[in-house]
């Protein structure tokens, strides 16, 4: 099998036929494009999501916290705690594990999170450290935003720069190679991307603004996120390549490793759909969050306009990151 996410069609079949029972107190169920489940608790609801970090060795604790809290933020609510599972290879030291937990704790302090529990073990089943977290958020009843609520005519907005996570990982894991073609200033810029990896702030703002849908852009990049949103919402999209916010550093990394920046892991960017995109962009910029309109939700077609030509967008495959780290 290919490294990375399973084929969307095959994964959907596995999920749909293996859900246990359906409970009435589950308002939103996880699925393709829907990374969170929302559970009703009287006047409140609990939002839960889980994800591992498998594609990075450096900054793994930070990334593990943020990719999971970003899922919660994509529902428009704030995370309150996480559970942490660490699977360490036999080559690990106690210091390695301690360092990861210190990273996790430091990021939790920044986001006002409590570490609620978890599991840690050394095992021959992995050849490098794996960190998996489950994040939990709390909101008022019916407040959580669903990925599956994008509507034809919506503007599509992305925040910050695409490919930040992938660029950060490439800089750290392939430093000797990137040091040959990037300047010292560009390397420092890319290393700083880890400090902008959270979308909790924009998630909260967009939730309060009443957007139709949100999805944090992770494995599969912006095109993968667009496919998941459109599949979950049973609609299409039309986006413009020239409108995609990509930094020059990321472009250089992608050119060097023959990577498509639109299918490059992009934690730190949020994909949002709403009726009045410019109003939302102005609101985000007022709160010091860079944002750009990249296209519209459509009824059926899934296309990107590049060099004046329409190109069909295929379902997400393995993230382009694996071309770099494998």
From TrEMBL:
Residue ranges constituting the PurM-like C-terminal domain according to the UniProt record: 151-305
GO biological process, alphabetically ordered: protein maturation
Domain PurM-like N-terminal: 33-137
Top-level taxonomic group: Bacteria
Pfam families xref list: AIRS, AIRS_C
Family to which this protein belongs: Belongs to the HypE family.
Protein name: Hydrogenase maturation factor
Organism: Clostridium pasteurianum BC1
């Amino acid at each position: 099998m290919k490294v990375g996410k399973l084929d969307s069609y095959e994964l959907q079949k596995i999920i749909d036929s293996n859900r246990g029972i359906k409970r009435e107190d589950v308002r939103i169920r996880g699925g393709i494009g829907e990374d969170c489940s929302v559970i009703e608790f009287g006047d409140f609801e609990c939002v839960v999501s889980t994800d591992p970090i498998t594609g990075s060795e450096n900054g793994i604790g930070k990334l593990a916290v943020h990719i999971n809290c970003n899922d919660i933020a994509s529902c428009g609510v704030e995370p309150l705690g996480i559970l942490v599972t660490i699977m360490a290879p036999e080559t690990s030291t106690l210091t390695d594990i301690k360092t990861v937990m210190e990273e996790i704790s430091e990021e939790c302090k920044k986001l006002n999170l409590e570490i609620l529990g978890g599991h840690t073990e050394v095992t021959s089943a992995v050849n490098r450290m794996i960190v998996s977290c489950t994040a939990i958020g709390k909101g008022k009843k019916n407040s959580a935003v669903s990925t599956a609520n994008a509507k034809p005519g919506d503007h599509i907005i992305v925040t910050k720069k695409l490919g930040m996570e992938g660029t950060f990982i490439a800089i750290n894991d392939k430093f000797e190679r990137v040091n040959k073609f990037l300047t010292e200033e560009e390397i420092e810029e890319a290393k700083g991307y880890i400090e902008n990896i959270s979308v909790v702030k924009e998630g909260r703002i967009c939730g309060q603004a009443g957007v139709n849908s949100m999805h944090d852009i992770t494995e599969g990049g912006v095109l993968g996120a667009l496919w998941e949103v459109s599949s979950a919402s049973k609609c299409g999209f039309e986006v413009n390549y020239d409108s995609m916010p990509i930094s020059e550093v990321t472009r250089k990394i992608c050119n060097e490793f023959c990577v498509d920046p639109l299918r490059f892991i992009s934690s730190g960017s949020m994909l949002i759909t709403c009726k009045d995109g410019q109003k939302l962009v102005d609101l985000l910029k007022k709160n010091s969050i860079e944002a750009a309109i990249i296209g519209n939700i459509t009824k059926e077609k899934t296309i990107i306009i590049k060099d004046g030509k329409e190109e069909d967008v295929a379902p997400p495959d393995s993230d382009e990151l694996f071309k770099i780290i494998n």
